[in-house]
Amino acid sequence: MEHHIRPRRSMLYVPGCNKHYLDRARTLAADSVILDLGDPILVAAKEESRANVVEAVRQGGYGNREVVVRVNNLDSEWGQDDIKAVADIGADAILFPNIESREDVLKAQQYLDDAGGSHMPMMVMIESPIAVLNSKEIAAASDRINCMVMATSDLISQLHAHVTHERMAILTSLSLVILAARAYGRGVIDGITSDFKNMHSFEYACRLGRDMGMDGKSLVHPAQIAYCNDAYTPKVAEIANAKLIIKALKEANEEGRGTVVVNDKLVENHHIKAAQRLIKLHEAIVELEEEFI
User: Fold this and answer.
1) Strand 260-262 and strand 265-267: pairing?
2) What is the pLDDT of residues 173-203, one digit of tens each?
3) Are 52 and 17 in contact (CB under 8 A)?
């Protein structure tokens, strides 16, 4: 199942405990905002954060940005109350953390349905070794899942690995989740880069994730948005080449040929789908960015 193409080049976590940040997110050029009730929120601020997020989503003003609410763990003392509070307030999706199995997906979906959110799309966080190994069954568990979001910082900690510029420790994990997501038509988003002052490494991570097949990157600071958006935006030459591929192969097919050479590269039918998707993504980005100008 291929979900509607929606730009998710940049997905900004916004702490629910800070009303100023919730307001500011309405003005930032992030494709998606994740209004966060989860682990970064202090225990003492959990209920206040929930109330802030409910108020912010109902108030609106986020335009065409995708508004996602990350709830607390299902087995925490706040998880089910979070779901009840946000299931039907007008968000675009609910993000569930610490999903490690098909059973976790179905449990989250049932909680959401019981809370009046049977219409709501779901996102799932992949943040542990077992979640990566089970990513295929997670992706296959429900067509309500529209996106899988990597939590690479958590994953690196659980792997007892080290953060490096080249990201060697998690390349296999990223690839496995990308494979699972694409096999079942889900979006897939790279994890955060905690060192938000090291823009060299951040930009490298964005371009590496893009080249591996990610749809975008989650981030923790507005200064990172421009780097995400630039890396994951199709370039003018890419769009022109996509249009040329479609035109050239159509003409070749009409002449009885199944392949054609475009810019010194052999083009076949599977390249058409990729070209069409790139053009649709470009059009969606242009429409979204009209709000940012």
Assistant:
1) antiparallel
2) 999 999 999 999 999 999 999 888 899 999 9
3) yes
DSSP-assigned letters across all residues of 94-159: EEESS--SHHHHHHHHHHHHHTT-TT--EEEEE-SHHHHHTHHHHHHS-TTEEEEEE-HHHHHHHH
pLDDT, position 4? 64
Answer for the pair 214, 188: CB distance below 8 angstroms, yes or no: yes
Instruction: Enter the tokens of residue 204.
Output: 């490298």
8 Å CB contact between 165 and 138: no
Q: How many CA atoms lie within 13 A of 170 on its CB side?
A: 34
Separation between Cα atoms, residue 79 and residue 1, nearest integer Å: 29
CB count in 10 Å sphere of residue 251: 11
Picking from 217, 105, 225, the residue whose alpha carbon sits closest to that of residue 151 is: 217
> From the centroid of its chain, how far is CA 114?
25
**Tokens 């209920």 — which residue?**
47
- CA–CA separation, 56 and 50 (whole Å): 10
Read off the pLDDT of each residue in 27-48 and give the average, rounded to a whole number: 95
pLDDT for 65 beyond 90: yes
The predicted model gives 36-60 an average pLDDT of 95
